[in-house]
């Protein structure tokens, strides 16, 4: 089997899709099922070293591809960039990919090139279609147009969960046999750590082992933080010996009101906001928290819930969601739009030790069902399917 993987998510500091692309690339490159493997983005083939580390050496990227990558990053701000990109790049792609029709092309992030061979596309979620209010208008326009083009030209589709698979089938009327749900996995760096192993990092943040709730994500409206903060405020009013909420994540789009509320609760001691935290500290926080609080309004998978379970930490997340599919019976499921329901979950996590022990063990067992090796093998199975 010959495979070309779209590698544009690797040309910047890794996000969730970048990490997914990196793991798929590593798995394909080492698989005996793959006879020839190439990486392609912005009209250019790249060497294998771009997925070896978490950061890309941008000096090694040619000027032409760098300019195209910059154009892509400007799409959320410039209608002109959208126009230039949509006209120029397909012409370059057609020339560069000519002669590779015997390869399978897999795009890991919804954008397919001008390629006449077999095309597979991963669509992680339909956020810009279902909740356009959560994104800048120009981003919505660009992403939705790219997804609609992919739907018309791809031979097969991959999603991270059955939840998103069903949405994709319903939204576009796709034949169910053309869409496969393949779960993600958490890094092996997320693991159970003893209190002693966490003490040094926790002292740096003035935290105690199992003495805080944790929220990890970019701060933006769809993460449901306003309802989480309202629930935390109500929860803290019940007992002076409450667990504070530690929030880890950078400032995202349209988050000023959320940050104002965070600052108010910080002054009361209900919340502590750390912003960006280095990876090796984050792993300790995951393993040290009383629970992960992640009742997001919408996710394609919700990787933090799996990272928490794998770290031996209980999870509170949204029912009837991609996250509830990942968690299964190993967590507390709440109505994300109901602060009182979230509050009740926080209370149970605080005082029902027997329940917490039970879902912690269930979470560890559930987490063992996920691995990047399984993700890669199931992805290869999709490549081998014929339309």
UniProtKB/TrEMBL annotation:
The keyword NAD does not apply. Residues 118-185 form the Glycosyltransferase subfamily 4-like N-terminal domain. The keyword DNA repair does not apply. InterPro entries: Glyco_trans_1 (IPR001296), Glyco_trans_4-like_N (IPR028098). Residues 212-353 form the Glycosyl transferase family domain. PANTHER family: GLYCOSYLTRANSFERASE WBBK-RELATED. This is Glycosyltransferase family 1 protein. It comes from Pseudoalteromonas spongiae.
